Automatic annotation (TrEMBL):
The lineage of its organism: Bacteria, Bacillati, Bacillota, Bacilli, Bacillales. This is Metallophosphoesterase family protein. Residues 4-209 form the Calcineurin-like phosphoesterase domain. InterPro entries: Ap4A_hydrolase, Calcineurin-like_PHP_lpxH, Metallo-depent_PP-like, Pesterase_MJ0912. It comes from Paenibacillus sp. SYP-B3998. Pfam families: Metallophos_2. One of its GO terms (molecular function) is phosphatase activity. GO terms for cellular component: cytoplasm. It comes from the Bacteria.
Length: 257
């Protein structure tokens, strides 16, 4: 049996990231995949990049990771760019779009926002057509050598954890039933949850290591308490731009415009 921890949307919140990594270590999970948005919002963008590089076997690019590599007009973006420096910005710019994992006979595809772009958002209440579209092989995700489409999709971006199944006809695939259940889940956010629960969130996927054998597979959501007061204090100590909005988000677990 193999366990993979999937984290996303750190957004420079180091106390939250530390708590999640400690929880993963306590569970003796050694495989960690990050679904992007390491930077922005919180004051620890640089440290988040360094920590994620050190502990994750795969890191995919988020919209904030790509966006911060472009010229910044606003003070907050300029501030985060200065904290990151040229080497980390280059690392963020070259991150891959998606990663495929095979467990228990399933193809699991992981990306930040959707199969189209890091900026194309799949909302929690998206239509069935929009949900089915993320299971397609696209120019961004590429196509596996065997031509297979994913059975399970995991993504980040919206900071709201959920899981649902979708009944989808796949009549062009003779090796599986004409109608097969697909699984779609969002891993939530480590640094800035938006579901009303301010505790850090991540997922654990567990299945059989032999990817060719159909077997049981589980997806578990984990909420981890952390020192939110410390996270707020760190933002104010360095006089981070937009620190008040960041404080409101991480203390309430809700998005603030």
């Amino acid at each position: 049996m193999d366990s993979v921890a999937i984290i996303s949307d750190i957004h420079g919140n180091i106390p939250a990231l530390d708590a999640v990594l400690q929880d993963i270590k306590r569970r003796e999970i050694t495989r960690i995949i990050c679904l992007g948005d390491l930077v922005g919002k919180g004051p620890g963008s640089a440290e988040a990049v360094d920590r994620i590089k050190a502990v994750c076997e795969n890191v995919v690019q988020g919209n904030w990771d790509l966006g911060i590599t472009s010229p910044q007009d606003l003070p907050a973006g300029q501030w985060h760019q200065e904290q990151l420096g040229a080497e980390r910005l280059a690392y963020l710019e070259q991150l891959p779009f998606s990663v495929d994992v095979r467990l228990s006979g399933k193809l699991i595809r992981l990306f930040h926002a959707s199969a189209q772009s890091v900026f194309h958002r799949l909302k929690r209440k998206a239509s069935k057509e929009e949900r089915l579209a993320v299971f397609e092989n696209t120019a961004m995700t590429g196509t596996p050598l065997d031509g297979r489409q994913p059975d399970i999709i995991g993504y980040g971006d919206i900071h709201i954890p959920y899981l649902l199944t979708i009944k989808s006809p796949r009549q062009n695939e003779s090796t599986i039933p004409a109608c097969q259940g697909l699984t779609l889940f969002n891993v939530g956010s480590v640094g800035t949850p938006y579901d009303g629960n301010p505790q850090a969130c991540y997922c654990i996927v567990e299945g059989e290591t032999d990817s060719s054998v159909p077997a049981g597979l589980s997806i578990q959501f984990v909420r981890v308490p952390y020192d939110i007061e410390l996270a707020v204090r760190l933002a104010y100590e360095v006089e981070m731009p937009d620190r008040r909005r960041y404080e409101l988000e991480i203390t309430s677990g809700l998005v603030h415009k």
